[in-house]
């Protein structure tokens, strides 16, 4: 289970690369022309959105043709020197592995130079990144593959790159294809996945096979069966999608007002928004001063959030939102180009338990909505944050709510920011159960009058049900 399925099921040869048959054929022909010693273009560029098999195809090609591989990630290079050095070695026909190991070119065995995220160097023309890649393409004696998400940005900076390369497009993987890959993996892992669940996973992936496989793995954790409910409950790809597009509004666009408005539209708690921006800001703002100013805005936002928590100054939510949207967007002086690989916040990842916080939030909001006669969505957006605070602070309120909403241990743990098996969670659930089991309606009234203001807000509908069942 600990193994990453996207790596486990990475294609080992081109025949395992699904979708994009023309791209695979073009690559095979190109490799063949190298084998015959007369390539028309010395470099190929693999262009396409994430998770469509570009890196996999490059590695599979090398495996099929028994070529060695020198893999470099352009975004890791602090300057162009490393690429220049590789260009030089490539030009001499000799290469080193990325760990510095010497690879001889005996028997005319070719070495494939793979430069991943080549477009991520495009923002640093000042350091000669693009010319270094162009030089590599011009002078290489070994096959070169560049991998890019945003070819336009890179190609317009260099005619050598534009004209001297074979361009191979990778399109999004079609839904039925994603579905059949997922079905195969599930079968191999011994997880029974319903057709409906496969459909939802495939649809949600939006042509990104990597994310589809990841979702399948996350959702299958600890299960042998997975149906639509199991998939619908998670829905984290959904937030990932919305936070994802807002990220571009904040980091790339130059309109702070629009960034603030876009962030406000996202249906997430201010804390979650902050985590997303904090996690991804360093990937977006590479200029040190921009990053410094951006982080300063984030930390001010965090200040306001903690004042909300400490003193219930809810007005400060708006300030934190302004700082995160407007403030971070306005913090940059440099333009931000190219594709940024946004990440799901580590913190949320660590915090998410078997069911996933998102699912728990949804379930609690639904119960809260039923109790207070509002939609689950409104409950989550407007009530849940303050409900959570009250729940943490006021013990009588907590007990009353666990009882009336019939909250489960996982939900209580979520509300208390605590582990499911912690003593605090166990205790409150046990006490609430005692209250429910021991005596039904009458003692409940008693506890209500005793608890005073704490249990005032909810005039729970479940009461009625209990009265009837009396
Ligand atoms: N066309 C494909 N055929 C088979 N598996 C694929 C394909 N595309 C993606 N995958 C699966 O997704 C994983 C990631 O794919 P890969 O690294 O090739 O994507 P990529 O196009 O390079 O994405 P990125 O642009 O994010 O680097 C693979 O390890 C494999 O499990
Ligand atoms: Mg890749």
Structural features, described:
With 470 residues, this protein is α/β, with parallel strands linked by helices. It folds into four domains: 5-170, P-loop containing nucleotide triphosphate hydrolases (Rossmann fold); 175-234, Helicase, Ruva Protein, domain 3 (Orthogonal Bundle); 239-351, Zinc Finger, Delta Prime, domain 3 (Up-down Bundle), CATH 1.20.272; 357-469, no CATH class. Helix content is 60%, strand content 8%. It is built from 24 helices and nine strands. The protein has helices spanning 5-8, 21-35, 54-64, 81-92, 129-139, 151-155, 159-163, 175-189, 195-205, 209-220, 228-234, 236-251, 256-265, 270-284, 288-311, 315-330, 346-351, 357-372, 376-393, 395-404, 409-416, 423-438, 441-451, 462-469, and strands at 43-48, 68-73, 95-96, 102-103, 111-116, 144-148, 165-170, 192-193, 225-226. It has a five-stranded parallel beta sheet. It has a two-stranded antiparallel ribbon with strand order 3-4. The chain has a two-stranded parallel sheet with strand order 8-9. β3 and β4 (102-103) form a beta hairpin. α12 packs antiparallel against α13 (256-265), α20 crosses α22 and α21 packs across α22 (423-438). The radius of gyration is 27 Å and the shape is globular. The model is unreliable at 440-470 (pLDDT under 50).
């Amino acid at each position: 289970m600990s193994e990453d399925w996207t790596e486990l099921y990475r294609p080992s040869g081109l025949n395992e690369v699904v979708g994009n048959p023309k791209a695979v054929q073009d690559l095979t022909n190109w490799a063949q022309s190298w084998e015959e010693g007369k390539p028309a273009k010395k470099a190929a560029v693999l262009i396409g959105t994430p998770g469509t098999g570009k890196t996999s195809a490059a590695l599979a090609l090398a495996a099929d043709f028994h070529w060695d591989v020198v893999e470099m990630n352009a975004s890791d290079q602090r300057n162009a020197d490393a690429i220049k050095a590789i260009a030089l070695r490539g030009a001499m026909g000799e290469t080193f592995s990325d760990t510095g190991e010497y690879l001889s070119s005996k028997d005319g065995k070719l070495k494939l130079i793979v430069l991943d995220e080549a477009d991520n160097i495009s923002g640093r023309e000042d350091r000669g990144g693009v010319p270094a890649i162009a030089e590599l393409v011009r002078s290489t004696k070994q096959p070169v593959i560049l991998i890019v998400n945003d070819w336009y940005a890179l190609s317009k900076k260099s005619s050598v790159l534009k004209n001297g390369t074979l361009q191979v497009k990778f399109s999004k993987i079609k839904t039925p294809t994603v579905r059949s890959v997922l079905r195969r993996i599930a079968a191999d892992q011994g997880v029974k996945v319903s057709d409906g669940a496969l459909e939802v996973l495939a649809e949600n992936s939006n042509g990104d096979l990597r994310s589809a496989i990841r979702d399948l793995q996350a959702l299958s954790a600890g299960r042998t069966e997975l149906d639509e409910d199991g998939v619908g409950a998670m829905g984290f790809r959904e937030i990932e999608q919305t936070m994802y597009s807002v990220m571009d509004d904040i980091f790339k666009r130059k309109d702070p007002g629009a960034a603030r408005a876009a962030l406000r539209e996202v249906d997430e708690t201010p804390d979650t928004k902050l985590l997303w921006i904090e996690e991804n800001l360093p990937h977006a703002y590479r200029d040190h001063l921009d990053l410094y100013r951006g982080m300063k805005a984030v930390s001010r936002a965090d200040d306001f959030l903690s004042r909300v928590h400490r003193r219930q100054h809810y007005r400060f939510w708006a300030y934190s939102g302004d700082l995160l949207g407007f403030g971070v967007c306005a913090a940059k002086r440099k333009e931000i180009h190219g594709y940024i690989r946004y990440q799901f916040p580590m913190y949320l990842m660590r915090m998410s338990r078997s069911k996933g916080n998102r699912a728990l939030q949804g379930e609690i909001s639904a119960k809260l909505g039923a109790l207070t006669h509002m939609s689950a969505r409104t409950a989550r957006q407007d009530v849940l944050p303050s409900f959570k605070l009250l729940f943490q602070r006021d013990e009588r309120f907590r007990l009353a709510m666990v009882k009336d909403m019939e909250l489960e241990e996982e939900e209580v743990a979520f509300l208390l920011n605590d582990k499911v098996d912690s003593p605090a969670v166990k205790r409150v659930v046990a006490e609430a159960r005692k209250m429910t089991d021991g005596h039904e309606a009458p003692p409940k009234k008693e506890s209500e009058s005793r608890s005073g203001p704490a249990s005032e807000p909810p005039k729970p509908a479940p009461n009625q049900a209990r009265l009837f069942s009396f």
